Amino acid sequence: MIRWITTVIIILLCLAPAAGYGQVYLSLSFDDPQTTVSPVLSWQQRNAHILQTLHKHKLQSILFVCGKRVNTEDGAQLLQSWDGAGHSLAHHSWSHRNFGAAGMDLATFREDFLRCDSLIKPFRHYTRLYRFPYLKEGERRAQIDSCRDFLATQQYANGYVSIDASDWYIDGLLRDTLAANPNANTGVFRDFYIRHILERSYYYDSLATALTGRKVKHVLLLHHNLLNALLLDDLIVALKQQHFIFIDAAEAYRDPLYRQHPATVPAGESIIWSMAKATGRYEDQLRYPAEDGVYEEAALRALLQQAAKH
Ligand SMILES: [Zn+2]
Question: Where in this chain does the entry annotate a coiled-coil region (predicted)?
Answer without folding.
Answer: none
